[in-house]
Specification:
- The chain is an alpha+beta fold and 99 residues long.
- It has one domain.
- It has 3 helices and 3 strands; from the N terminus they run H-H-H-E-E-E.
- Strands 1-2-3 form a 3-stranded antiparallel β-sheet, with no helix packed on it.
- Strand 2 and strand 3 form a beta hairpin.
- The model has no long low-confidence stretch (mean pLDDT 94).
- The structure holds zinc ion.
- The site of zinc ion (ZN) has 8 residues, from loops.
């Protein structure tokens, strides 16, 4: 294990802080900062070799690092057994299978 438990806890705290800042920036309409904070959060996770918690992972556009908020930055459709999310900023499409 390369990172101690303490460092992992700290990483999770930082990630959660970055995501709340990203939400705040989205409210203010500053997409450049939203992307910056989301990108930093993913970098912290990579460096500490932790998986980004699922509650955050589902919010990210992996192509442009924006927050995916239905009705704001992404559209959500259900087709068959898939949820199809489309990032309205870069057009990236994310399909998730419904169990
Ligand atoms: Zn995108």
């Amino acid at each position: 294990m390369s990172c101690s438990e303490d460092i992992r806890d700290l990483a999770i705290q930082r990630i959660s802080r970055l995501f709340s800042l990203a939400h705040e920036m989205l409210r203010r309409g500053d997409i450049a900062l939203v992307r910056r904070y989301v990108y930093l959060a993913t970098r912290i996770a990579q460096r500490c070799r932790i998986k980004l918690p699922k509650r955050y992972r589902v919010l990210i556009c992996k192509r442009c690092y924006t927050l995916l908020i239905p009705g704001k930055t992404c559209s959500v459709r259900v087709r068959g057994s898939y949820i199809i999310k489309r990032c309205l900023l870069c057009g990236n499409v994310i399909r998730t299978r419904i169990k």
